[in-house]
Amino acid sequence: MPKYIQKRRKRWYGVMEIPKALHTTFNKPRFVQSLETESQSIAEVRVLSLIPRWKQEIALARAYANSGNELLDGVIKVRQDTQRLKAQGLDDWEIQMVHEDVAMDAALGEKNDYSGDHSLANAVSIVHGDSILLAEHIEEHLENKDSTPKSKDMARTALIAFTKEFPLAESVTERGVRDWIIRTMERERKLSYSTIKREVSPIKMYWKWLKRYKGLDAPNPFGDVLPPAPSKNSKSKSSIDVIGFSVSDYHKILEAVPERDRNLRNLIVIGAHTGCRIEELCSLRTEDVLSDRVQLVDAKTKAGLRTIPIHNAIIQLVAELVDTSTDGYLISGEKPDNKYAKRSSGIGKRFGRLKTKLGYGRNQVFHSWRHSMTTQLENAERPLNQIQRVIGHTVSGMTFARYSDGLAFETSKEIINLVDWRL
């Protein structure tokens, strides 16, 4: 069945589900409208005119729910009323006259001296004029981005801060953006160059999206706004280079794990013997664990999708965890306790508190086990491309990256068993 159409009593209807969080806003779970035809091919054409309007209504409702911006709230109300009047058959010029009359009455006030509320007039001038209110389209833009919820939240935070400083697109200039970055990011927040670059990136992407889809016609204001990049021979003061754990660190940390926290102990042992990232291990399902290997199918990168031989030192432990799992995960019982549904959230915090208590700094984290494993394999004089295959890094060199199908399993098993955490 094609998307957005549905057959009911021999006729076709346009249908779009409304996000659950907005059911109360619309007082219904979905948009439904008759397409006035019994032909599927005609229905598929007619529904195309409904989809953008429904998506815009959803985006407006989301923006209103997250706003806190008085001008944006006014614009959204005028937009929604415009949709209502269009549905009644009014032309654009008629709708504009209605809105301007209402806005004028509010602005004139009781004394007829323009001492009233001008917020509606400002909103009407944006809706029926050429100005683009930057805050208005944030949710629609993010809705169409192919990225993780966490990435969208980070982009939203950056965009909201930007649009508070620059409400209208016409108010954005290169000098203004540069001064804003210096004042807020460099001086107030003391961000590093890389962090500033990361926060500005979604703003630049939003600007390009507005030019493509919302008719923005303005010069690029991001040409020369970033601070000077740090020298390649120097490192930003705020940068942190992750370093590995030693063999003695491994035993010190394991001895400090509370007896009741078996999951944390098992996670550390398995992480140190596989080089897996914490979320890779926490999302590893028992169905992807065989007697001698694990298959990573939910990795951070394409290179991370790999088969890992189970180290001889942990074969028995892994088998026991598979047999005793109560929820289908190798690390059983961990709940996704944050809004991004990451199972590693709780146990990751427990590891962080433990290593901090033991005196390890910000540059030694769970990811350090990957560094430690890489160091051990490098000292065992294994070729770089073999280490990269086992760890799950992108393979260097065009020949190995493009033409090789990877290491034989027996070779990978030999390599991974070179990792040795014995004192």
Strand order of the largest sheet: 1-2-3
Residue-averaged pLDDT, rounded?
A: 85
Write down the overall geometry. Answer: globular
What's the name of the CATH homologous superfamily of the largest domain? Intergrase catalytic core
Q: In CATH's first tier, which class of the largest domain applies?
A: Mainly Alpha
**Count of discrete alpha- or pi-helical segments spanning 4 or more residues:** 19
Q: Based on the structure given, which CATH architecture of the largest domain is correct?
A: Orthogonal Bundle
**Whole-number total of structural domains:** 3
Main beta sheet: 3 strands, antiparallel
- Which strand-content bin applies to the residues? 5-15%
The Cα radius of gyration reads 28 Å
Q: Can you write the helix and strand succession as a string?
A: EEHEHHHHHHHHHHHHEEHHHHHH
Low-confidence stretches: 393-405
Helix fraction?
40-55%
